[in-house]
Amino acid sequence: MPLIEICPPDPTWPVQFQALKASLMPALPAGAVIHHIGSTAVLDLPAKDVIDIQVTLDDLAAADIAAITAAGFATRPGAPRTDHCPPGLDLPPEHLAKLFFKSTGRAANLHIRQTGRFNQRYPLLCRDYLRSHPGAAQAYAVIKQQLSRRFPDDVDAYYDIKDPVFDIIMAGANDWASFAGWTPPPGD
Q1: Residue-wise burial string across 37-54, b where 16 or more C-beta atoms lie within 10 A, e elsewhere
Q2: So what's the pLDDT on residue 72?
Q3: Among residues of the chain, what percentage have pLDDT more than 70?
Q4: Measured between alpha carbons, how far is 46 from 56 in angstroms, rounded to an integer?
Q5: pLDDT tens per residue across span 106-146
Q6: Would you state the pLDDT for residue 2?
């Protein structure tokens, strides 16, 4: 089985997110905000069959690693602790810092990020922009599908191309956010 496989949209992905959220909520500190992010959070968008969850905390140190692990999310050895920085931006490391976990059950990634940081805003804007711009979402789907065909077993090559392409999409998303008065939404 290839490492990267783009699946047709699954209308149950939002329901699956809600089940993961319910299992995770008791492990999170008061005030945590949970969002369904990534391609599975965009209606009719082909995606890897992995639910991405963002938890936003006022302070990353407030995360109870043992409780999150007990809820079925484990850290991976060598897991990334920072997010991709788009070319041309000079961001301080704290704006890219995160905690990262993988579900030990249904395939899911858990990204814990800090309120107000660049990397906390980016996936929410990305999701909302693609939800409101189906043409951009479908073009993005074609890119992901082509990349998964060309690099089914090369995760690095897939992301080496996908990330900068998405940075181009996000340039439009940032303009749209300014025009529309977009702000990060409350939790899902």
Answers
A1: bbbbbbeebbbbebbbbb
A2: 96
A3: 97
A4: 26
A5: 999 999 999 999 999 999 999 999 999 999 999 999 999 99
A6: 76
How far is Cα 77 from Cα 16, in angstroms, rounded to an integer? 26
* DSSP notation for 44-101: T--B-S-EEEEEEES-GGG--HHHHHHTTEE--TT--SB----TT----GGGTB-EEE
Query: Sheet containing 108-114: which strands, arranged edge to edge?
Result: 33-37, 51-57, 108-114, 99-103, 73-74
For domain 13-180, the question of CATH label 3.20.20.120 is answered with no
- Strands 99-103 and 73-74 turn out to be antiparallel
Residue with tokens 């089985």: 1
Contact 79, 100 (CB under 8 A): yes
Nearest to 89 by CA among 170, 185, 175: 170
| Domains of the chain, residue spans | 13-180
Tokens standing for 156? 């690095």
Is the pLDDT reported for residue 40 higher than 80? yes
